[in-house]
Amino acid sequence: MAMARLRDYWPLLTARLTGAVRALLFWTLVYGYCGLCASIHLLKLLWSIGRGPGQTFQRLVRENPPACLNDPSLGTHCYVRIKDSGLRFHYVAAGERGKPLLLLLHGFPEFWYSWRYQLREFKSEYRVVALDLRGYGETDAPSHQESYKLDCIVVDIKDILDSLGYSKCVLIGHDWGGMIAWLIAICYPELVTKLVVINFPHPNVFTEYIFRHPSQLIKSGYYFFFQMPWFPEFMFTINDFKALKHLFTSQRTGIGKKGCKLTLEDLEAYVYVFSQPGALTGPINHFRNIFSCLPLKYHKVTTPTLLLWGERDAFMDVEMAEVTRIYVKSHFRLTILSEASHWLQQDQPDIVNKLIWTFLKENMRKNE
């Protein structure tokens, strides 16, 4: 009798043991790589202090925003307080009220200003809204790390649509905003008429690929480094936010390899926003919850989708773009732009805008 019961329970016990071992290996890898990344950054800090301690801890006080952040051609600064969380969100809106909504979700380390070219371009036919996500810019930043879980961010977008008086929108997301855009299309497909994602694969593709390909694991080292408390924020501030400037201007990762270059005023806009007291903690908290949220249980996308990808992306392997196709059960179009960086909508705005216009004006058929 005991042997018979053991045989009956053996598959369940095996499945549970296998799951426990996988979870142990997963979290060992996450925190082990987190420690490695932290060690590398600590060595960088010590090297910087050794070369010039005064310069390492130098930080300019930026009290007034650069003029480009108040450029009237970009739209109007607005605020909305949503019911579910009670948080106040900042956004910039262009185009007449009542026109179809085109909602723009930025990545990291960005804010609404990364959509300046699209705010000007699409306002002729859309109400264009470039949002500061939870914790970014002038949007409220809850203090608790758990407030930045992906399900909270998804509900934010749903509630913002309702607060703006819309039941659906064209949704465009870049980088981390692309991750959120995928999740909105998966969880609330009725809200999204068309989906445009820039330089971010389907979340499940990202999760599966990162642990199977060392090249992507290295490129995504910041995801693991950001699991550390306070130290990532501190590393961004040294040498007057040199790391932040480097992301947008270096030969390997920066904007302007081909197409538009980031002006000094544009760069100062980013540094101004993220140099404000506590301005980095909210954005980095988004990443501190990611490993507990992925992979997704539900992953099918039934919304017509355009995926745009800069081939010279220093943070994402281009191979993930093509694999994303298998998760989209509707019209799917992938366009890879050569010589373009991770910051695609700023790097090649004219081409990106043209591709988005073409996609928006098409009549889609399922399973194309």
UniProtKB/TrEMBL annotation:
Species name: Sarcophilus harrisii (Tasmanian devil)
UniProt keyword Hydrolase, yes or no: yes
Transmembrane portions of the chain: 20-43
Record-annotated AB hydrolase-1 domain positions: 100-345
One of the record's GO molecular function terms: epoxide hydrolase activity
Keywords: Hydrolase, Membrane, Transmembrane, Transmembrane helix
Family to which this protein belongs: Belongs to the AB hydrolase superfamily. Epoxide hydrolase family.
PANTHER family on file: EPOXIDE HYDROLASE
Pfam families (alphabetical): Abhydrolase_1 (PF00561)
UniProt KW NADP keyword: no
Highest taxon of source: Eukaryota
Protein's UniProt name: Epoxide hydrolase 4
